[in-house]
Amino acid sequence: MKKVVSENIQEFLEKLGNRFLEPATLYLLGGSALILLGSSRDTLDIDYVGSDIQSDKFQKTLEEVAHELELETEAVPIQEFIPIAQTGLSRSLYFGKFGIIQIYIFDPYSIALSKLDRGFDTDLDDVIFLLKKNIINLQQVESFINQTSGSAKEFDIDINQMRSRLDAIRSHLLKG
Q1: Cα-atom radius of gyration of the chain, to the nearest Å?
Q2: What is the tens place of the pLDDT at every residue in 41-99?
Q3: Which residue of 64, 77, 83, 89 has the fewest CB atoms within a 10 Å radius of its CB?
Q4: Are residues 73 and 115 in the same domain?
Q5: 94 CB-near residues (< 8 Å, 6+ apart)
Q6: Structural domain span for residue 126
């Protein structure tokens, strides 16, 4: 399988839009969404919100196009990982229309919280990217972390770890 870069994602979306001829909406997240927002880091797959797939036919077409282009895709049930993902659709960013498929970048705050929760160095770099591009802001991220604390156990989230990682990012930004 190929590494996923901007050109691969564009080609994937164009082929998907040309092939699937019914109205649909697709919400991208993870590294592929960040690439579309301007991140220079590559990723291994195209992540999308699994619950947004309206039909088996759309899912099948999506998988066929990815296979033809030798790209990995992954349906991510983000609403099972981060509580604010439940309201994330309203904060999603419109990316474009391919055929009659509407493409959105899923809520950048949900993406940031999921990355703060996982906590790899590359995840923290992704949060820094979102902050530096003014796609999200530090105070709102902190507010969402505080809102999440009530349901942290239900989602297996370590709020203290997320706060610690956000503090490390804040320190990094102050130095830089």
Answers
A1: 16
A2: 889 999 998 766 667 899 999 999 999 999 999 998 888 888 887 788 899 999 999 99
A3: 77
A4: no
A5: 102, 103, 104
A6: 111-175
